[in-house]
Design a protein that fits this description.
Number of strands: 5
Radius of gyration: 14 Å
CATH topology: Rossmann fold
Number of domains: 1
Bound molecules: 1,3,4-trihydroxy-5-OXO-cyclohexanecarboxylic acid
Strand order of the largest sheet: 2-1-3-4-5
Number of helices: 5
Largest sheet: 5 strands, parallel
Length: 140
C-alpha cells in the first residue's frame, strides 16, 4: 500500500473558519476523514504546523521513507528558502498544492520556493486540489 502524507502549513488549521469565500467552509479534519474513506487503497496521513522548522523536520523524516508528499506550505510557499531547500534535499516526490488559484491573487503569491523542486503543482480547485494530488500518486 502506498504511503502518502499531506503536510499543511500555517493557518490551514483554520480552514472552514478562515476567509470561507476563498478557502470554503469545510474544516480540513472533516475533509480528511472523507478522503481517507474514499482512498482506502492508500495509507494516508495528515500533518499541520504553523511553524516553519516543524514543516522542515517533517519533510526530512518522511522524505526518505514515504511514497509521496502532498505539500501546501501556505504562506511559507512564497517566503521560505528553507522549505524549498528541504523539498530539494529529500528523495520522496512532492506535489505542491494550493486551495486557491494563487496566480489570480496578489503578486506576492505568484512566487513559490517549492515549485522548482516539486514533481508537479495543483492549484485553484479548492480542497479537490488535494484529491487530484492523491490521484496523481495512485496513477504513478
Ligand atoms: C494557500 C495560498 C497561499 O498564498 C496562502 O498564504 C495560504 C493558502 C492556498 O492553499 O490557497 O495560506 O496556500
Amino acid at each position: 500500500m502506498k504511503k502518502i502524507i499531506i503536510i499543511n502549513g500555517p493557518n490551514l488549521n483554520l480552514l472552514g473558519k478562515r476567509e470561507p469565500n476563498i478557502y470554503g467552509s469545510l474544516s480540513f479534519t472533516d475533509f480528511f476523514e472523507t478522503v481517507k474513506e474514499k482512498y482506502s487503497n492508500v495509507n494516508l496521513e495528515y500533518f499541520q504546523s504553523n511553524i516553519e522548522g516543524e514543516i522542515i523536520d517533517k519533510l526530512q523524516t518522511c522524505g526518505f521513507e514515504y511514497d509521496g508528499i502532498i505539500l501546501n506550505a501556505a504562506a511559507y510557499t512564497h517566503t521560505s528558502v528553507g522549505i524549498g531547500d528541504a523539498v530539494k534535499a529529500i528523495e520522496t516526490p512532492v506535489v505542491e498544492v494550493h486551495i486557491s488559484n494563487t496566480f489570480s491573487r496578489e503578486a506576492f503569491r505568484h512566487q513559490s520556493f517549492i515549485s522548482p523542486h516539486s514533481k508537479g503543482v495543483i492549484l485553484g480547485f479548492g480542497l479537490q486540489s488535494y484529491e487530484l494530488a492523491i490521484q496523481s500518486f495512485i496513477n504513478n
